[in-house]
Each structure stands twice: as C-alpha cells, then as structure tokens.
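Quick one - first record:
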Amino acid sequence: MTATAPPRTMRALAKTRPERGAELVERPVPTPGPGEVLLRMEAASICGTDYHLYAWDAWAQDVMQLPTVLGHELAGRVVGAGPGVTRVREGDLVGVESHLVDWTCSVCRRGEPHLCRNLRVIGAHVDGGFAEYVVIPQENAIESNGLDPAVVALQEPMGNAVHAAFAEPIEGRSVLVTGCGPIGLCAVGIARAAGASVVIATDTEPYRLELARSMGAQHALDAADPETPARIRAATNGEGVEVVLEMSGAARALDQALEVIDRGGRISLLGIFSEPALVDLSEKVIMQGVRLHGIFGRRIYDTWVRTQDLLRSGALDVTPIITHRFDLADWERGFELIASRHAGKVVLLP
C-alpha cells in the first residue's frame, strides 16, 4: 500500500519500569497485521491519564502493562496497511479512537461498544502514539483530512466533552462547566456552539479561567470563592443552572453542582474522583428530580461524527486550547507543564 518503506527503527516514549518516570527509547517500527494500519505520527497530545501513568500512582499500577509506549490522543498519516484494510487509504490523516473493543460482548452487541466488557486502551494496554509510528486497527482510524494535526489529536478528549454535553439536549439551556482542564474547556466551547443560553465555568486556577473566557464562557468563576454559588444563581435569574458538565473529579465541585442545579436539571459526570464522593441522594437528587449521567469515553462512532461536524462547520474553534507544542525529545517539559496546570493542551510532535 505504501510507496516508500518506513525506517526499521523509531523513537518512542515508553513506560519501561514500575516507578515514576518514562524513557525515550529506540524501538522497531511496528508492522501492521490483518485489518491494521501503520500511521506515521504527526501530533500526539498529553492527557492527564498519561501523567498518572508517568507518575506511577496506584491507579496506574492497577491498569498498565509494562513495557508500553505511552500516548492515546493521536493524529497520524496512513503509510501502510495489512491485508483486508478498506476503511482508510494511504495518505489519509486520521484521528484515533483510543479504546479497543471486542465488538462481540453483550454490551457491544447492544450498541454500546464504548462500554465494552473487555476494553483495552491504546497507550496503557498496548503501545501508543508517543512515537514516530504506531499500528492500530482500521476500525480505530477516523479519517480527518483537512484539519490541523494538533486538532485531529484533540478530537479524542474533545469527544468525551461532546458525549457529556449531548447526553440530553443542551440548546437554549443554562450550562455550568466545573473544571477547566482541556476537556472542560472543550465543553465550554461545545455548549456555546450548541446554543446554550448561558455558559458558566468554574475552576480554582486563574490561568484556566482565562482560557475558559477565550472559549466563550460568559462567566468564569473561582470555584473556591464562597460567593460563587450566589453568582451562578444571579446569572440564571435566581433559578440555578439546567445542565452541569462535571469535568474535575473534585468532590467540592460536585457539591457545588448539586447546590446550584435547578429542579429537574441534569448533571453529566465525566471527571474521575480520587476517592468516593458523599452525596445526599434523598435531598439533592431524588427530591429535586435531578438526573445523573455517568459519561465514559466516546460513543463509537456517533460522538466522532458530532465532533467532526462541530469542527468542520466553523461553529467551534478549539485552537485556543492548544497552548504548547514540543518535539518528542522535549517530552519532559510537556509533562512539567501538565503538572503545573499552567497549560491547556500540550502537543508532542514526533
């Protein structure tokens, strides 16, 4: 399929030892098998998940298989294919659905493969894209010609926000986004593009609140300020918000969301909590008629179609979120920025 053979070896950022850190190593360029495509990487962005794996916290120790090349937010050019590939062609720029599903379990068969019982994740269970080349199943390659490679890579985390936002209708509703990391910032832009009546964002980091304003939040508020709930109610005519997109995984943010949600409102929960959250279900959820949606990953392929429609329509510009770009060799600077929280999306350029 490819006119020019790839080199035999490549640079790759791998997790090689069960301890904090990662290592830039030389690996053989992988060979695609049946139904697989070889991508020459053009952009790969760092996720909070990557930082957890780098830090080797308890969660990382539980999920990761060593040694593994990191990276799951990817954009690459198709340069080779194994037998049976029909979905994409040589030269296509593709994004990557990072979840590998079996397509045969009962959950996949009922139309929810994003919740596959036998899920594996690129960059955690199999080699990822913090490398010059990566092999993926053709089912996971999402044609994205015409988009900036950094934006193509951003589609994966942006898809989480699309899934959370569109769990129910959002047009004409007041929306609160709690947590302004990259996915939360995407959620702010999505809510504006989808026609929310007002978009409010909360975080504790002024840098991120300024990014939220650049993405269209009419109100960007310090979540730690005791006056913030009152300001949220004032921005919604005293009624509270109709939709909360919880992106932080912070118990305090969930408490605040339940304090300001209107009766009959809904909360999409995407942020992962480091410990169990204590919620008064009787008073705050049941008696208020509040609906809680657990959001995991992206609906395959519905979320990808919605994501690309938003990007191609011009209704949503995510470039303000992409704040830093580094060569793969400078990966440590990228991880330091993620830890500092003084960055939006950090992109590595293999």
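second record:
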Amino acid sequence: MTDTEWYASWFDTSYYHLLYNHRNEEEAREFMERLVHFLALPPGSKVLDLACGKGRHARTLQALGLDVVGTDLSPQSIEFAQQYSNEHLAFQVQDMRIPLENAAFDAVFNLFTSFGYFDHLEDNLQVIKAIGSMVVPEGMLVIDFLNAERVKATLVPEEQVHRGTIVFNIKREVLNGKVIKHIAFSDQGKVFQYTEQVQLLGMSDFQTLLEDHFRIQDVFGDYRLSPFDPDTSPRLILIAKKR
C-alpha cells in the first residue's frame, strides 16, 4: 500500500468504524439543522454529502426535506448506507476528485474533516474543481475541517483507546505540514497497523484553494456556528458561494 492510498484501505475496514463509534449523533443532527437553516435551503433542494462515510449526515439532511446524494470512496461504507436509500436519498462509491456526471447541486457538504488526505496540492485543487463543476451558479459549499492551529497546540502524542476487546495504540506527530496518526492493534491473533494523515490546512490555504471557484462568505469555529477563533475553536467551518 502506498502512502497516497492509506485512506482507501483504512476507511474501508470495520476497525475504522469501531475506533470512531463514539461520535455524537445528536451533535451531528443539530449541526445539520443549523446549517440548513443558516443556508436557507428550501425543501427539495438537491445537495451532495461528499465523503459521506456511512451516511449519518446525509440521512439527517434528507430528513430535513432535502434531496440528497452521498458519495464515498469506501465500498463498505456505501454498502452500509444504501440500506437507508429512498427516492430522496441515494448513495454511490465515488472518488471526490472525479465529479458526478450531469450533477447540478444547490449545495455540497464536506463534513467531519473529509478533506486534505492527499499528498499534493494538485489533488486538493482537483477536488475543488470537481465540486465547482457540480454546483449550480450561486450554489453553496460547506467545508467542516479541523482547526490546524489548535490541533498543533493540543496534540496528544500517545494514547490507548479501548473498544470492546480491542485496544488501539495511537501515536500522533506533526510532520511535513500534516498531522499523522499511527494506529496499531491486535485482533484474533493478528497484528494490524494503519496510518491516518491529514494536511494541516488553515484559513489562508483554503482561500487559495477556493478562490477560482468559490468565494468564502462565513467562517465558524464549532458545530453551534460560533465565531471562529484560530487559537481556541475546535473546528474551521467554511461557508462559500460559487463564483
């Protein structure tokens, strides 16, 4: 497995979902409600949940009256999500660098740090270009990303996470502009090792990435849509409109 393919392997394992099964569903639902209200998306708006995972945000968006498509690179995640499919909610496997054909979305949501996985700036630009091609004029883009400055200031170098009988040994480091997480564990007599890496992109980085296709209009710092503070905010949430 090459470094650029770590996400394709790790995100498609059941262990990834086990490690992160503590995610707060109520918080995610309330975040979607606030976003839809803030964006003033009318019922029936067509939206894309880009890198949707198992579809928890997509399901909430559809419950709020939107027509939703969720895409993800992980076949396992999409297979799980498809049990919730209906006439207003669809899922498919898709690389975020490649646009869906004949797409015309009123809004695209990229949530829970589902960006910055690649090694090269060109890949990030390709993602933004693909999104731009799928959004209608004056359409919206929401990017929910980590706050890079706070991550660097509060990094926990090592920890153990217990999930049932499995103990995940996690080591973190900041290297070459990325936060890298090394994950090791044993299960049924086998030893597993995976790596996560996310580029530490800040506000200026996103301004550069988006400038040809989108104009940033609002910036928030948490899921309650509080003002962004680079030192204290847990998240960097960008609201941008297509140029």
